[in-house]
Design goal:
It holds the Pfam family PmbA_TldD_1st. GO terms for molecular function: metallopeptidase activity. By secondary structure, the protein is an alpha+beta fold. It has 2 domains: about 10-235, PmbA/TldD superfamily (PmbA/TldD fold, 2-Layer Sandwich); about 240-455, no CATH class. Helix content is about 25%, strand content about 35%. The chain is built from 9 helices and 17 strands. The strands form 3 sheets. Strands 3-2-1-4-5-6 form a 6-stranded antiparallel β-sheet. A 5-stranded mixed beta barrel has the order 7-12-13-14-17. Strands 10-9-8-11-16 form a 5-stranded mixed β-sheet, with helices on one face. Helix 3 (about 140-155) packs parallel to helix 4 (about 225-240). The longest helix is centred in the N-terminal third of the chain and has 21 residues, at about 10-30.
Length: about 450
């Protein structure tokens, strides 16, 4: 993208100050109602989204959302209520409703705010700046022009592109304040921008669909619209004339945008909610080797322009950089304070989820991994919900490419890849350096040494 002008007037700090004042007033109202502990979240978001298809405008949406959530604790009894109405009467009613719910709720020994000693505190220079505030003064007409240019570049990029599922451009800016009765008050702001396109190649029953998108916190970091459109066209055309694959055991290379789903399955299995409900195939696995000895995943909440950088989690607990997996060994779980108490452990500063995860590479880029694989399957798309979280059994519909002699020879679709996640984790042979930057899970392509592939003989 070309250089993006910064808005002449940015009132975000003034609006954050207003939200902070509102949160503190609501905490005082909770105390006045007799709550022992309380927490308040205040959010505002403004956004613009446009979509086009076949050279025509389909939608133009401007959004302005806000929300107030109040949670109170009377001892170990919890009540929550929310509103989008900022009139005093509505705010008073929201606090009263949260308190009424708490008074009629059964006590929960794990309920309550995170421990006061774990709250994040600003340094001598204040809170760190993660460079995540880049408002884009995007007018609807300009957004439409960008979307049209993206789609046109894709449709004109190859004669085999016969139709379009459309192109879109979106931009949003959000503000959030979290405060609790431990005295913690945190205010943050962030921006998110994207350009995407989906195209159809071929005709009749031979049609194939694929797309591409660019996503960033700063519009300057987005790929040019024409580049996004051309990439979408290349991907759609590459899928034409798929051929069958014989059922068997193959090495499987998950391309980077698909590989992060493997990390997502790990996260689901080591999250506190799954563990205390005993609905995870990785119960009691902290300290055990799940991956090859060279494999590691590091969490870095302080990454500049990281998609989930933060100095505190959703409970105000200070975040910290730490290993999730080191030398193939699971180092810890992913916990907020409630799940930690249920497990007899301490929060890991992950209320609301993980921050930026960095999967260490041990290989070169995608092409090198294809050569290394020699004979196997590249997976570029997964279909369906094919994971049993209790057993780790894995079975997904998939599409991608057949590899022979270290080269891609033809596309494949309608296949199923299957295994068990424990075995798949152990069978990882390489992680590529081709990191997909469009997710807070930053990983390159992942090569699994052997999986069952069901095709058609």
């Amino acid at each position: 993208m070309n250089s993006v002008a910064v808005p002449a007037t940015d009132d975000s700090q003034a609006r954050l100050d207003e939200l902070q004042g509102l949160a503190l007033r609501l905490l005082e109202a909770c105390r006045a109602q007799g709550a022992d502990q309380a927490e308040v979240s205040c959010t505002q978001e403004r956004g613009l989204s446009v979509s086009v298809r076949m050279g025509e405008v389909e939608t133009v949406e401007s959004t302005r959302d806000r929300g107030i959530a109040v949670t109170v604790y009377f001892g170990q009894r919890k009540g929550s209520a929310s509103t989008a109405d900022l009139r005093e009467g509505s705010l008073e009613a929201t606090v009263a409703q949260a308190c009424a719910i708490a008074r009629h709720t059964e006590p929960d020994p794990a309920a309550g705010l995170a421990d006061a000693g774990l709250m994040a505190r600003p340094g001598s220079d204040g809170w760190p700046d993660f460079d995540d505030w880049h408002p884009w003064p995007l007018e609807p007409d300009r957004a439409v022009d960008l979307a049209l240019a993206c789609e046109a570049a894709g449709r004109e990029g190859d004669a085999r592109i016969t139709n379009s599922d459309g192109a879109s451009v979106s931009s949003s800016a959000s503000l959030a304040v979290y405060a609790n009765s431990h005295g913690f008050v945190g205010a943050e702001r962030g921006t998110h921008h994207s350009i995407g396109c989906a195209l159809i190649a071929g005709r009749g029953e031979a049609m194939q669909r694929d797309g591409w998108y660019s996503y960033a916190l700063a519009a300057d970091d987005l790929e040019p619209p024409a580049a996004v459109g051309r990439r979408a066209a290349e991907r759609a055309v590459a899928r034409l004339q798929p051929r069958p694959v014989a059922t068997g055991s193959y090495p499987v290379l998950f391309c980077a945008e698909v590989a992060r789903s493997l990390v997502g399955h790990l996260l689901g299995a080591v999250s506190g909610g799954a563990l205390y409900r005993r609905a995870s195939f990785l119960l009691d696995s902290a300290g055990t080797r799940l991956f090859p000895a060279w494999f590691s995943i590091h969490e870095d909440p302080f990454l500049p322009r990281g998609l989930r950088s933060a100095a505190w989690d959703d409970e105000g607990v200070a975040t910290r950089a730490s290993a999730l997996v080191d030398d193939g060994v699971l180092q810890r779980y992913v916990l907020g304070s409630y799940s930690a108490r249920r497990l007899g452990l301490q929060t890991t500063g992950n209320a609301g989820g993980v921050h930026n995860l960095l999967v260490a590479a041990n290989a070169g880029g995608f092409d090198e991994l294809v050569r290394t694989m020699g004979d196997g399957i590249v997976v570029t798309e997964l279909m369906g919900q094919g994971v049993n979280p209790v057993t780790g059994d894995y079975s997904h519909g998939a599409a991608g490419f057949r590899v022979r002699g270290g080269e891609i020879v033809h596309p494949v679709d309608g296949i199923t890849i299957a295994g068990n996640l424990r075995g798949m984790f152990q069978a990882i042979e390489a992680v590529g350096s081709d990191v997909d930057p469009r997710s807070h899970i930053r990983t390159g392509s992942i090569l699994v040494g052997a999986m069952t592939v069901a095709g058609s003989d």
